[in-house]
Amino acid sequence: MNVTHDFGLWVAALLTLCIFSFLYRDNPLYKFAEHLFVGVSAGYYIVLNFWTVIVTNLWDPLVHATRAPHPLSAQLGDYRLWLLIPGALGVLLFTRLFGKIGWLSRWSLAVIIGVYAGLKTTGFAQSDLVAQAQASLQPLWNGHVWQSVSVILFTIGLITSLLFFFFSREHKGALGVASKIGVYFLMVSFGAGYGYTVMSRISLLIGRFQFLLEDWLGMK
Amino acid sequence: MNLSSLEKLDRRWLFLLMGLLVLGPLIAPIGCPLVVTPPVQGFYDAIAKVPNGSTILMSCDYDPASRPELVPMTKTAIHQLMDKDCKVVVTVLWNGGPGIVDQTWRESMRDYPNKRYGVDWVNLGYKAGNEAVMVLMGQGVANAFPVDYTNHSTADLVALPIMARVRDYSSFPLLVNISAGYPGTKEWVQQVQSRFHLPMVSGCTAVSAPEYYPYLQSGQLRGLLGGMAGAAEYEKAYGVKGAATKGMDAQSLAHCFVALCILLGNVVQARKRTGGEA
Asked: Tell me, what's the ipTM?
């Protein structure tokens, strides 16, 4: 065992143990670590966003534009003084803080929603609707027994799961049976999702333990 | 044993047991078997099939919160790409990510003393805008990223000669995406793979993996690494034992324990309902 002499690693390790102490019961050490984390994170991300979003995307290009011979002759990747328009829309978002002129923020929100709705709609239609529908149309028999079984199961699961969400008729008779089978397929998918979620959370715990054992205590 | 007593069990005993089950194998590994599954083999093969010396786009869309799951697979992908003499253009769409991504790259590149920053790889850093950045990159990578993470202009081909090989998505035979959520794999598939037909592989956190399996089944993704298990299988396919492999014993024991808890909980509840044990 070769315990680190790095002050930063000691702080990180002790804060990790403070957070773990909550598993026993709520206590002042946990509260201290939690509040410290929230405060530092908020401060860090405000500063980070200022320097990586506002300065790099707005301030620096505008300063550059004022020095350019033709400040309004924009081209791809160099929008010059035209950046004042998104800059102004960004400022308008803060009018929500002032009651009477709060409605001005809707203009900015309209642009944001419009742009992202356009981007998402076309992207979703191409990748999730058309491509997925195409991929779902598979021959049930392709000469290989297990691959065919897999395709048949997939097709049954797809159709019965879709039928479960058909609410225009009461789920009785054939529709009732099909939707019941659909529920089982959905439950399997929820189970798989739960398993993966557990894996994600355990991975975080493993990551913390690996940090404590290897980086802090030097047990490599 | 009186199963109904389990209902009154202090949950801190479960926390303690879980802690020990995770900690034990990290101190004394037990070597649970690991099999490389087809999605992971697909990821490995997609990179292996890229011609040596190609220029690859690698988007590392995560921040330090996903470090245990995503950093190991990033490191293995870097090694596989560098072994093939590929040139790699790195982007980040999470604002908390550039630091950890740069650290991961520089740690990995210590194994390749002959490879140089700006020549063999470049970190273009973070750009705000999510999907808008992806679309803008289709009109020119340098337009979306005027400067790199070290503040060199991407138009400066003396400092960053690698950028001479990069125009837009047509410059890349493969996109390697390491994703922790939004923006990430889903958005790259929607905005880039489907629109620009750029072949793509993804490594993601386990919690988001089920959402991406349909893309794998449809061929929109060539391969998929799901969480720490995916990273460990990838390490096995590549032939190394990294941090993910070391964590898999603990992962397996923890999963068995969770499954046992669910089973016991259901048995207790079932007996209560049928009027057996109260």
From this structure: 0.91
